[in-house]
Design brief:
Elements: H1 2-10, H2 18-44, H3 72-101, H4 106-131, H5 136-160, E1 167-170, H6 174-200, H7 220-248, H8 252-277, H9 282-305, E2 307-310, H10 314-323
Antiparallel strand pairs: 1-2
Helix pairs in contact: 2-3, 2-5, 2-9, 3-4, 4-5, 5-6, 5-9, 6-7, 6-9, 7-8, 8-9
Protein name: Heme A synthase
Membrane topology: Multi-pass membrane protein
GO molecular function: metal ion binding; oxidoreductase activity
Length: 324
């Protein structure tokens, strides 16, 4: 009942073109990646508790206010990051309205509705992070959830660009798609190891002496080596995937996206190496987090290109369905 009423209400909106839908979907990717980077700025500037409560900034106030124990700069940085949540929410809401109004297929609708749902989940995780005093594992979960949202937003962008009345067509053999899954698992392991490095590293998000942030009590060098080894595995699998795709033949879209993924991962590795030998400067932490979102988006785009939805003739459709 409510869904039908929502659809009837949305019908009063102008019909968005495919180009408009793709622009909105791109804005969703950028907003999800952007708030991940600004979250890193909050952490490296020790502004994680600039607003010490949630959902309010201070007890009784949703906005910053003068406080002798909380510097104004920290309040501004943390509150600005919270305000960006509204931009993320707006983009998520717009993409839902666009695809519902355009009567897109169920797959697109599911991905679109995951955007506002994920935003609400992220807000809850953020509240838990603040209320727990920035416990290292809550910060890790918060970052990993952001990376998941970037992945889903990239898939949404790809799905929106495909025809609703087409059929799924595998662009490469199934074993190579499974190799891509394996590389994705290595990427996930790299991300998890990276959050553990953050949990034991020097940027806790707050430097209050009377309320020190609990850190992961593991030797950071050990965690750095684990993170680096997972990255090597990730890159090795991508190189192997590249040779496999070259052997069976790949279209221009797949080739271009594979090159982007490998180049992005190599650049990310270089940033990590410089971080390690320069005692983790704050600016490089922000760049490294932004690079992580780029790696996630590039890998998701590559994954989407390996199996696409295309408009083809009836006989060809039957052949594609039988070979899938």
């Amino acid at each position: 009942m409510l869904s039908r009423a929502f659809v009837r209400l949305v019908d009063y909106l102008p019909l968005p073109s495919l180009r408009v839908q793709r622009i909105i979907a791109l804005a969703v990717i950028l907003s999800q990646a952007g708030i991940s980077a600004t979250g890193a700025i909050v952490r490296v500037t020790s502004s994680g508790l600039g607003c010490p409560t949630w959902p309010q900034c201070f007890p009784g106030s949703f906005t910053p206010e003068a406080h002798p124990e909380v510097p104004a700069l920290h309040q501004i940085v943390e509150f600005s990051n919270r305000l960006l949540t509204f931009a993320v929410t707006l983009c998520a809401a717009l993409v839902v309205l666009a695809v519902v109004r355009a009567r897109r297929r169920r797959e697109v609708l599911v991905y679109a509705w995951l955007m506002p749902g994920g935003t609400v989940l992220q807000a809850i995780i953020g509240g838990i992070t603040v209320r727990s005093g920035l416990l290292w594992w809550t910060v890790s979960v918060h970052l990993l959830a952001s990376m998941l949202m970037v992945w889903l937003a990239t898939l949404l962008f790809a799905k929106i660009g495909e025809p609703d009345d087409g059929v799924d067509v595998a662009q490469v053999p199934a074993p190579l798609r499974w190799l891509t899954v394996l590389s994705g698992l290595a990427m996930t392991g790299t991300l998890i190891a990276g959050t553990l490095v953050t949990g034991a590293g020097p940027h806790a998000g707050d430097k209050s002496i009377d309320r020190p942030v609990e850190r992961l009590q593991v030797e950071i060098v050990t965690l750095v080596h684990a993170h680096a080894e997972m990255l090597v595995a990730y890159l090795a699998l991508l190189v192997g995937l590249g040779f496999g795709l070259a052997a069976v033949g790949m279209n221009r879209a797949i080739r271009r996206r594979l090159i982007v993924v490998i180049a992005t991962v190599c650049a990310q590795a270089l940033v990590g190496i410089v971080q390690y030998f320069t005692d983790v400067p704050a600016a490089l932490v922000v760049i490294h987090v932004a690079g992580a979102t780029a790696c996630i988006a590039a890998t998701a785009a590559l994954w989407a290109a390996l199996r696409t939805r295309e408009q083809i003739t009836a006989p060809a459709a039957e052949a594609a369905a039988s070979s899938a």
